[in-house]
Each structure stands twice: as structure tokens, then as C-alpha cells.
Amino acid sequence: GQNIDQPTEMTATEGAIVQINCTYQTSGFNGLFWYQQHAGEAPTFLSYNVLDGLEEKGRFSSFLSRSKGYSYLLLKELQMKDSASYLCAVRETGGFKTIFGAGTRLFVKA
Amino acid sequence: EPEVTQTPSHQVTQMGQEVILRCVPISNHLYFYWYRQILGQKVEFLVSFYNNEISEKSEIFDDQFSVERPDGSNFTLKIRSTKLEDSAMYFCASSEAGGGHQPQHFGDGTRLSIL
Prior knowledge:
The complex is a heterodimer of chains A (110) and B (115).
Chain A: E1 3-5, E2 9-13, E3 18-25, E4 32-37, E5 44-49, E6 53-57, E7 60-65, E8 70-75, E9 84-91, E10 98-100, E11 104-109
Parallel strand pairs in A: 2-11
Antiparallel strand pairs in A: 1-3, 3-8, 4-5, 4-9, 6-7, 7-8, 9-10, 9-11
Chain B: E1 5-7, E2 10-13, E3 19-24, E4 31-37, E5 43-50, E6 53-57, E7 65-68, E8 75-79, E9 88-95, E10 105-106, E11 110-114
Parallel strand pairs in B: 2-11
Antiparallel strand pairs in B: 1-3, 3-8, 4-5, 4-9, 5-6, 7-8, 9-10, 9-11
């Protein structure tokens, strides 16, 4: 079956580092994406991993282990505007269908 | 920066009526998608479209749904006979290529409310 698991909610402090985990079981694998979604808005692309290891992009980094079906998104130097939902999404083999997790709602407090 | 645009931003329709949601993908993109997100739930894949035909669809995309690219810029989702459970945010997305590292760029969505 297809399953993507993420924690429902997390809270962190402004200026700190937070790690959002994602585990997946899908029908084939052709890449993992992280999106940010503010309430009532569209998802916006943050990062992509298809090979094992860490991808760094400014304050955001994403890690993938394909053998473990595991990824995380690391956010550094948290800002209040980082309060949003973070969606883990897996593209299935074949390249078209992308399965989204339910998202992790991150609250950044002062 | 080029973006995906969707109209209308909010559509209110009586149950049983037909509704057409419109999207203008990013101009050099070749792959188009529709997703829906019921309030408080996850984003769900509906359909992907390439080279003027459906390339993949989910089990949600049944006979009441159809997609069309009527001209060189628009991409539409039609729901033939709407039901209460079709109430959701509908997102259009496009990407330059279909696989690999190409991210899908999402429009701001159309909030569909069925009465």
C-alpha cells in the first residue's frame, strides 16, 4: 500500500533548529519532495531528494535514506514566518503521480 | 517569476450542477496536474496531463471528472454533476518535465463550495 507518515504538529522557538521526519511506503520511488504550505495558500516547493544523502538550500536541508524509506527536513535559524505546514511528498515510479503526506504543522514561538 | 494562475478563486455551486475550474500553467511547462485538498486534510492527486492526453489518474478521478486543454494556454477541470463531497480546494500545478527533479509549481487554488 501507499503510506506517508509525518508528525501532526511540532513547536519550536525562534532562532532554533527543528527537524521534521517523514517515513514512506509507496508503490515505487522516483524522488521525494518537501513543500511548505501556509494556511489557505498553495504548497510551495522547498527541496527534492532522489539519491541518499543531504541536500542543503540556505536555511533548509533535506535528507533521504531510500533503504529506510526515511527523510527529514531540517530548518535552521527559525523565523516566525516559518510557521506553516510542511508536506512530505513522494513521486511514484513512472513520474506522474505524487503522493502527499498529511503534513506537519510547525508553530514557531518567540 | 512566472506563476500558475487559477480562476475563479472561489466558486459556489448548487449540488448537481456542472462546474469548470480554469488554470493557466507556466508558459514553457509541458506537464499539468490537478490536485484537491478537502479542508483540514492532505493534498490528493487527481490527474496528470501531457501531450494533450491524460497520463495518469487516481481513483478519485471518476467519470464525473474531465480535463481539457482547449487552447495553447488554458487547462481546465470539469466536474459534471457536483456532489457535496466535492467541496474542497482544487489546485492546478505544472512542471517543465514529468519526472526527475522537476518540482511541480502550484497555483493559488480554487475553493469550491457545493451547496
